[in-house]
Amino acid sequence: MRAFFDSDLWWSFTRSRITVASAIVAFICIGGAFMAPLLAPHDPFDLASLQLMDAFTPPIWTAEGNPTYPLGTDDQGRDVLSAIMYGARVSLFVGFAATIFATCVGVLVGLLAGYLGGTADALLMRIADIQLTFPSILVALLVDGIVRAALPREVHDQIALFVVVFAIGISEWPKFARTVRGSTLVERNKEYVLAARVIGLSKAKIMLQHVLPNVLGPVLVIGTLNLALAILAEATLSFLGVGVPPTQPSLGTLIRIGNDFLFSGEWWITIFPGVALIVMVLSVNLLGDWLRDALNPKLR
């Protein structure tokens, strides 16, 4: 631990006020989301506690505001602040899970393509090139549509969260694969890899024990930036109505619901979830930008 606090990475982090502020905001967003059952003023999904008479209550600082609902309520009387905290849990879960899935697939494909070369490299990279010609959101929509058509609605609703994770993850893996392949092409001709071949280590051991640790730096940066993209992709799918089910609303679902009332004067129902999404994604993006610069030896 002491070595980390004495490292260049920590020094670079503490020298950037924007990065420190972004880290604090990201910590607050993630902490508030995953501790929503303890911190949220209300449980927005407890039907017994909903008061329809409190529907469309404006934020607390307006003349008709209610201190019980700091950011107001939606059309069903649900506390907007509590709904944002619970919705952020779903968005963050999908973002993290999809990024981890895309990272695992992309790193594996990149390692195999870069180390084996030849036909395997050509085949795997052409598959990645073909997928990169399609926008990620279209690939996610296609995967979700195929699953919806193949499974009964009841079954799909039960596994909808995992379908969204798979749909977003499978659309993002080529970015990791191309980066890892490029780094692997450089590493496979270095002396430590040649020495591992001479002593008779298998290709799998060389790739996993020797090459992989030396290509993870760029993967970490791409993963951080891809987390923000995955959260936005999930919000887009939910806004279009093909993401998580209404029983597990995310920030995208909340924005879609509030959009129906935006022009009737109940602006807070969609504005506050939208602001929460922007703040969360922006803080993660700024951390990713700092990490990219901090790990770039040319900028040291």
TrEMBL record:
<dbReference type="InterPro" id="IPR035906">
    <property type="entry name" value="MetI-like_sf"/>
</dbReference>
<dbReference type="InterPro" id="IPR050366">
    <property type="entry name" value="BP-dependent_transpt_permease"/>
</dbReference>
<dbReference type="InterPro" id="IPR025966">
    <property type="entry name" value="OppC_N"/>
</dbReference>
<feature type="transmembrane region" description="Helical">
    <location>
        <begin position="211"/>
        <end position="233"/>
    </location>
</feature>
<dbReference type="GO" id="GO:0055085">
    <property type="term" value="P:transmembrane transport"/>
</dbReference>
<feature type="transmembrane region" description="Helical">
    <location>
        <begin position="267"/>
        <end position="291"/>
    </location>
</feature>
<dbReference type="Pfam" id="PF12911">
    <property type="entry name" value="OppC_N"/>
</dbReference>
<keyword id="KW-0472">Membrane</keyword>
<comment type="similarity">
    <text>Belongs to the binding-protein-dependent transport system permease family.</text>
</comment>
<feature type="transmembrane region" description="Helical">
    <location>
        <begin position="90"/>
        <end position="116"/>
    </location>
</feature>
<feature type="transmembrane region" description="Helical">
    <location>
        <begin position="20"/>
        <end position="40"/>
    </location>
</feature>
<keyword id="KW-0812">Transmembrane</keyword>
<dbReference type="Pfam" id="PF00528">
    <property type="entry name" value="BPD_transp_1"/>
</dbReference>
<keyword id="KW-1133">Transmembrane helix</keyword>
<feature type="domain" description="ABC transmembrane type-1">
    <location>
        <begin position="88"/>
        <end position="288"/>
    </location>
</feature>
<dbReference type="GO" id="GO:0005886">
    <property type="term" value="C:plasma membrane"/>
</dbReference>
<dbReference type="InterPro" id="IPR000515">
    <property type="entry name" value="MetI-like"/>
</dbReference>
<keyword id="KW-0813">Transport</keyword>
<keyword id="KW-1003">Cell membrane</keyword>
<protein>
    <submittedName>
        <fullName>ABC transporter permease</fullName>
    </submittedName>
</protein>
